Amino acid sequence: MSELFKTKATAKGGRGGHVKSDDGVIDLNVVMPTDDTDETGTNPEQLFAAGYAACYDGALNLVAKNKGKDIDSTTHGEVSFLKDESDGGFKIAVKLTSEIDGVSQDEANDLMDEAHQVCPYSKATRNNIEVSLVAKAK
After folding, report:
1. The pTM is what?
2. d(Cα 138, Cα 121) in Å, to the nearest integer?
3. Which of 96, 79, 80 has its CA nearest to residue 133?
4. Rounded CA gap, 68 and 71, in Å?
5. What domains sit in the chain, N to C, each tagged with a CATH number?
6. Is there a contact between 98 and 136 (Cβ–Cβ < 8 Å)?
7. Per-residue pLDDT tens for 18-30?
8. Distance CA 58, CA 74 (A)
9. pLDDT above 70 covers what percent of the chain?
10. Which of 104, 85, 94 lies closest to 132, judged by CA?
11. Which ranges of 24-119 does DSSP label H, i.e. alpha helix?
């Protein structure tokens, strides 16, 4: 594989700390949503939801373009933080909902399934976390 680009971010303090990208575009406090605090900030699940939604929407549009479909799409990423009953730890699950204009419901379902095969985030998480796909043709 040939590297197209590389990015870097640094976290300090874990779920009660700070994250910053090397270029300073991301520069956020990290706060655990379940903590009783007035502090505002993001959390790893929110950052993952944003990244996965953006990556998946790009894959969806690439698949549609390669099939000659002219679509307009919006993808929502929802990440759940779950108690893992099997080992007492934690895990995440993802729900991706894409609103797709320009195709039928069946075509939207097919495009989402195909995008899930090529999206780098989907490849990275395959067989590791539960990912559900919801297509909404407009």
Report:
1. 0.93
2. 25
3. 96
4. 9
5. 1-42 (2.20.25.10), 44-137 (3.30.300.20)
6. yes
7. 999 999 999 999 9
8. 10
9. 100
10. 94
11. 44-66, 105-118
pLDDT at residue 134 is higher than 90:
yes
Residue showing tokens 């933080």: 81
> Which residues on neighbouring strands pair with residue 98, listed in sequence order?
75, 135
**Are the C-beta atoms of residues 52 and 94 closer than 8 Å to each other?**
yes
DSSP annotation string for 58-84: HHHHHHHHHTT---EEEEEEEEEEEE-
17: tokens are 């700390």
Cα(5)–Cα(46) distance, integer angstroms: 23
Strands laid side by side in the 18-21 sheet? 9-12, 18-21, 27-29
- Alpha-carbon distance of 76 to 124, in angstroms, equals 19
Residue 5's Cβ-count burial label (10 Å; 0-12, 13-18, 19+) is exposed
Question: In 49-68, which positions are buried (b, 16+ CB within 10 angstroms) versus exposed (e)?
Answer: beebbebbbbbbbebbeeee
Rounded CA-CA distance 99/137 in Å is 6
